[in-house]
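Q: How would the structure tokens look for this protein?
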Amino acid sequence: MSKKLFLLLFIFLSSNVLAMGISPGRTTIDFTPGLEKIVIITILNSDQKNITLIISAQGELQDYVLISQNEIRLRADEVSRDVGYTVKLPQQLEPGLHTADIIVVQLPDEFVSTGQMSVGAAVAVLTQLNVNVPYPGKFAEAQLNVVGPKEDGKVL
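A: Here is the predicted structure in token form.
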């Protein structure tokens, strides 16, 4: 019985999940000391309704991510909108992978219209920023070349 209830609940709640999307899901940058780069993300309004969104950063690199527009409003006629954020890397980071999550939260209609506190669910999507910092003296560069078959059908 609980599996049927779970499936039914999943079907009813899945309509809200499709209301918003984000692309790309992940952006990877190789570390350069003092790098300043603008990263563009696309927010999708698949339900094509008026929505208010809050954009924020969290994670290890949140202090190096500057979001110019923390709140945006998408109109019903907007299928998508490009939004940029700036990454300003420090002069030094420890070797390895460092991440930040850029989170886009759709404010519930009740909160937007009344401005009052309310209890409810909010739809959120995120994109990741990955910064690869190489280990000093320990890295490999690889190259893969696939050459077409010879006349006898063999591939090199």
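The helical segments are 2-17, 109-114.

The two ends are 57 Å apart (CA to CA).

Upvote if useful.
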